[in-house]
C-alpha cells in the first residue's frame, strides 16, 4: 500500500521528469558535437565523412633489375603521411595494402635522384611521402662466396686457460654488392666480444662484416647476415718441449743470402693438450728487412697458435749471417754468352783493322814502285 502511494505521489513524477530532461539534454549535446566535428548537419554516417590524418612508417620498395644491378644509398624505411576520410585512413592503416617505391627500371649505372611514388591507396586520400626524393647509386652487381673468420680478444681469456680454434655456424657466406666493392673484398669477419676472464667455451649470435684490406667496412649484402660464433676455451695445464725452426720474415736485400743460428735449440710450450698434440716444432720468424751485414737479433717468442698460452724462454738470441748470392746456372750461362759475344766482337774489330793495314801496305808498296819506275825513266832520259 505504501509502495503504490509512492508511485502516485507528485515527487515521483517530478523525479521521472528530471531524469528524462537530463537524458534529452545529453543526447542533444552529443549530436551537436558530432555535427560540429563532421561539418554536416546530419548524424547518419558522421564517422565516414569526418577527416583524419596519420603518419606511418613503411618499407621502401625498389623497382630495378636486381639480377643485373646493385643499388646503394637508399633508406630501408620511409614515412608516409595519409589524410582523408576517417574510414579510408583507418582502413589503410589496418591493412597497409599499399607500397611506396622508387622506379629505377629505366636508369643506368651511376648516381641518380628519383622521386618516390605510392600505389594501392585510394584516390580520395592525400598522400605525402617523407622524404619525397632519394639519391641512389646504381652499380653492376657481383656475388662472391667467402669464408667467415671469427675474431676475438685473447687477452680476455682467464689466466691458466687457452682458446681452441674459433669457428662459426656458417663456414662460408655469400657476399653481394657493387662489382668494385666485391673486387676489394678481403675478408668477412664475426667479431665476438668475450667476457672478461673467460674460462669456458663462449658462443654468441653476431652480425657479420665485410672488410677490405685496410679494414674498411664495405657496403654490401651478406647472406646470412648473422652467425653463431664460438670460441672453445680449455684449461691450459699441459706443457711440451719442442725444437725451434728459424725462418726469415720480411724482404731482404736483393742478391743477399741469409742464414740463422742460435744457442737455443728447444723451448717449452704451455697450452692445452689438444693444441700441444699437434705441435712438433715452433716456427720463429726472424726479420731480415733492411739487413745488409751480419748481425745479432733478440727475438721475442709470442704464442700465435690456438691453444698455446705461453713459451719459455720468452726471448732468444739469433745470429743472422749475410752473404752474396751465387749466380745461378742460367745467370752463369748468360754471363759466359755475353763474354763470348764481347770477345767475338773484339776479334772482328782486330781482323778489320788488319785488313785495313794490309790494304794500306799494298797501296804504299804500289806507290813506291810507281815512284821507282818514274825515277828510272827520268835517269834514262838524262
Automatic annotation (TrEMBL):
Disordered as annotated region, ranges: 329-382
Low complexity bias: start-end ranges: 335-382
Gene3D superfamilies for this protein: 2.170.120.30, YbbR-like domain
InterPro entries found in the cross-reference section: c-di-AMP_regulator, YbbR
Protein name: Cell surface protein
Species of origin: Ligilactobacillus agilis DSM 20509
Amino acid at each position: 500500500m505504501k509502495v503504490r502511494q509512492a508511485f502516485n505521489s507528485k515527487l515521483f513524477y517530478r523525479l521521472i521528469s528530471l531524469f528524462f530532461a537530463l537524458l534529452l539534454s545529453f543526447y542533444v549535446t552529443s549530436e551537436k558535437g558530432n555535427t560540429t566535428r563532421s561539418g554536416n548537419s546530419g548524424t547518419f554516417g558522421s564517422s565516414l565523412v569526418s577527416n583524419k590524418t596519420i603518419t606511418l612508417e613503411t618499407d621502401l620498395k625498389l623497382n630495378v633489375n636486381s639480377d643485373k644491378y646493385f643499388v646503394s644509398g637508399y633508406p630501408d624505411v620511409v614515412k608516409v603521411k595519409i589524410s582523408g576520410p576517417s574510414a579510408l585512413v583507418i582502413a589503410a592503416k589496418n591493412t597497409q595494402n599499399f607500397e611506396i617505391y622508387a622506379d629505377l627500371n629505366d636508369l643506368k649505372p651511376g648516381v641518380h635522384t628519383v622521386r618516390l611514388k605510392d600505389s594501392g591507396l585510394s584516390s580520395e586520400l592525400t598522400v605525402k611521402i617523407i622524404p619525397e626524393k632519394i639519391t641512389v647509386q646504381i652499380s653492376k652487381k657481383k656475388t662472391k662466396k667467402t669464408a667467415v673468420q671469427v675474431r676475438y680478444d685473447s687477452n680476455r681469456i682467464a689466466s691458466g686457460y687457452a682458446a681452441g680454434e674459433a669457428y662459426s655456424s656458417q663456414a662460408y657466406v655469400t657476399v653481394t654488392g657493387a662489382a668494385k666493392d666485391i673486387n676489394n673484398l678481403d675478408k668477412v669477419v664475426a667479431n665476438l666480444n668475450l667476457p672478461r676472464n673467460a674460462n669456458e667455451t663462449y658462443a654468441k649470435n653476431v652480425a657479420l662484416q665485410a672488410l677490405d684490406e685496410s679494414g674498411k667496412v664495405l657496403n654490401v649484402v651478406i647472406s646470412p647476415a648473422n652467425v653463431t660464433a664460438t670460441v672453445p676455451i680449455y684449461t691450459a695445464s699441459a706443457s711440451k718441449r719442442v725444437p725451434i725452426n728459424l725462418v726469415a720474415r720480411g724482404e731482404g736485400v736483393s742478391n743477399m743470402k741469409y742464414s740463422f743460428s742460435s744457442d737455443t735449440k728447444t723451448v717449452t710450450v704451455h697450452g692445452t693438450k689438444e693444441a700441444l698434440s699437434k705441435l712438433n716444432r715452433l716456427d720463429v720468424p726472424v726479420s731480415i728487412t733492411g739487413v745488409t751485414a751480419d748481425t745479432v737479433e733478440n727475438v721475442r717468442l709470442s704464442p700465435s697458435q690456438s691453444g698455446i698460452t705461453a713459451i719459455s724462454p720468452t726471448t732468444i738470441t739469433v745470429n743472422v749471417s749475410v752473404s752474396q748470392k751465387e749466380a745461378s746456372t742460367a745467370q752463369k750461362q748468360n754471363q759466359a754468352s755475353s763474354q763470348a759475344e764481347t770477345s767475338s766482337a773484339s776479334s772482328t774489330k782486330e781482323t778489320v783493322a788488319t785488313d785495313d793495314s794490309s790494304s794500306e801496305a799494298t797501296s804504299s808498296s804500289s806507290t813506291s814502285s810507281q815512284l821507282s819506275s818514274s825515277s828510272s825513266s827520268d835517269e834514262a832520259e838524262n
